[in-house]
Each structure stands twice: as structure tokens, then as C-alpha cells.
Amino acid sequence: MKIAINTGGGDAPGLNAAIRAATLAALHRGWEVVGIKNGYGSLYSDEPFIQLTRDTVRGITMQGGTILGTANRGNPFGMPYQKEDGSWDLEDRSDEAVDVFQSHGVDALIAIGGDGSMAIADKLTKKGIDIVGIPKTIDNDIWGCDVTLGFDTAVTTATEAIDKLTTTAESHQRIMVVEVMGRYAGWIALHSGLSASADVILIPEVEYTIDSIVEKIEEREARGRNYTIIVLAEGAVEKGGSRFVKGKTVGQAEQLGGADEYIAEILSERTGKESRSIVLGHLQRGGTPTTYDRLISLRFGAEAVRAIAEGNLNKLIVLRDNRIERIPISDVAGKMKLVPLDGDTIQTARDIGICMGD
């Protein structure tokens, strides 16, 4: 048996742990293991695979990032290319990828990625590639999975940052707007904001109004609390508005940004208070994975190999009620797990007086 492993989309703490577990579990069975560099990128090079051995994965469980590299614009079904006039477009090169897998005798692929990676995996399975997926995204928005690898570390990083910003906001009696990642789902903002005792949490699932935020600030001022912490998911939308977009690159999703500055500026005008904004950005993707992320990543990696060994292919390994399960990749493709508005976490935030912007 020969298997390949790749990591696609944005990096997340825990990727290396999953690679290590899958590699060692496969080698333990006497299989050959190869890695694809930079998403699917190296498939289109003279050296499409690198050999993964015990030495290759030694000591990487605690390392952030991914030893294989990753890419968020390497979709085989829409690869960027430059036209003669200098502009960029997309072309379908998936047949080339399939040919590489087949010509190199790869029996199965372990695809570690988020919703976009699983959509690609679903299409590749329809072209005859046997795949087992591992759910990776700090956004925690993969449908059918309670927790994805990388989420716990990202939330921990964001919570610690908000804690630090709270002390300086209180010292200077400022409004502090902290933007965290979360394009369509507000899991990071909700969990970190609630854990760090934020006063306002704005998520994509709940449209906000400036009036509701101003009301919260004035309420705090009346109680002698002369500072306010606002945690904002990058994809949060004002009622009647749209997402703030900084730019667009061919082959990539729109780059969001600017909501933090907008909110800080308008709140300063409305309240007369000094406001500051900060974007945590890729800080949330980096660093040493937490114990929890290491553990679930190792569990995901080993389970992926067990699924291949049992011939239970084209499945996504998921965590449900702290149990590892397998669900069809096709069930996940095109879906997204949003924050449930009737969930106890949002209800907890409301019950303790956190403004959700509505």
C-alpha cells in the first residue's frame, strides 16, 4: 500500500501532529508514505512527492505550521495561470493530478484541510481517487464535526491577546476593537470573546447595529466602567451592509479587512471616547498547538490510516461527542457549520450581559 498526504488551505496548529500520526500508523503497517508539497502544488512539478519516514516526522508533534507546506490557491479544478496579455485566469488541471497519482502508484490520499479542501476532495473522488479527509481549520466551520484541529489553539491565542488588550484599554479608558478570523462563522470571536469577558461580540451570524454597541458603551459608562472591549469576527456584517473587502486575487477567496477600523472610528465619533483597533490576523494560525489540538490531531491521523486499512474510503474523519467517527466526504462538501443562534454558548453570552450587536 502506498499513500500520500497533503495539507491545503490556511495553516493551523496541529497539522504536523496529524501528519506524524498518519505517517507512523502507515509505516507500522509496512506501507509507503509520500507527501505532496504546498497543497497540490508539487503534483505539477518534476518531483511531485517527497518520501515521509520516521526521521521526517520525528519531533514535529509540538511544531506549528506544516512540514509539507500549504496553499490556498492550488485548486486542481481551478489553477491560476497567466494569459498572454498578462492577466490571470483559472484552468482545470485535475486530470493531470489524477494521472500523477495513478502513474506513481498512489493507492489513497489523506487530505487534511477545511471546507474548500473537502470540496476539492469530493470532486477528486468522482475522478477515481480514493481519499480519507481530516478536518482542519481554525474557523471550526466544517459541517458534521464538533471540533476541527487548530481551533483550540487559535481561540487560546485570541483569548490571551484580548486579556492583554483589556488591561491597556482600562488604563487609558478606551474603546478597543479586536478583529479575529471568521469569514462566515463566528466561532473564534464567540469563544474567545466570551472567555476573555468581552463586552461586545460581533459575529457573521448576527447582523449588528452601531446603535446597539453605543447603547452598551453608554450603559457601561453609567456604571463607572469607562472602557469597552469589542471582539469582532472579520466577516461580521452591519445590518443593511456588506462584508468589508480589501482585495481579491485570482484563485483565492476575497481578502476581508477594514471592519475594525470602521467600527472604531464611528464609535469614537458617536461617543467622544478614544478608540483603537487591532487585527490579530495570522497570529491566530501560528505557534505551538495546545495539548487538546495535539491530541485530536494525532487521533485524526491514526484513524485516517485505519479507515484506509479497512477499505472505508472517501470518508471524513470527524469528532462527535469526543468520539471519532467517519462520514462521507460528499455529505460535507458545500456545507458550513455556523454558530447556532439558539445554542447555549450564545445564550450564555446574552445571559451575562454581553452585547451581540443586535
Distance from N terminus to C terminus (CA atoms, Å) equals 55 Å
Second CATH tier, the architecture of the largest domain: 3-Layer(aba) Sandwich
Overall number of structural domains: 2
Strand order of the largest sheet: 3-2-1-6-7-14-15
Q: Give the class from helix and strand content and strand pairing.
A: alpha/beta
User: Average pLDDT across residues?
Assistant: 95
* Principal-axes shape call: elongated
Low-confidence stretches: none
- The number of helical segments is 10
CATH topology heading of the largest domain: Rossmann fold
Question: How would you explain this protein's 3D organization?
Answer:
The structure is a single chain. With 358 residues, this protein is an alpha/beta fold. The chain has two domains: 2-149 and 289-332, Rossmann fold (3-Layer(aba) Sandwich); 155-286, Rossmann fold (3-Layer(aba) Sandwich), CATH 3.40.50. It has helices at residues 15-28, 94-103, 115-125, 151-172, 187-195, 210-222, 259-271, 291-309, 329-332, 344-351; strands spanning 2-7, 32-35, 50-51, 79-82, 88-91, 108-113, 131-135, 175-180, 200-202, 228-233, 245-247, 255-256, 275-279, 315-320, 323-328. Helix 6 (210-222) crosses helix 7 (259-271).
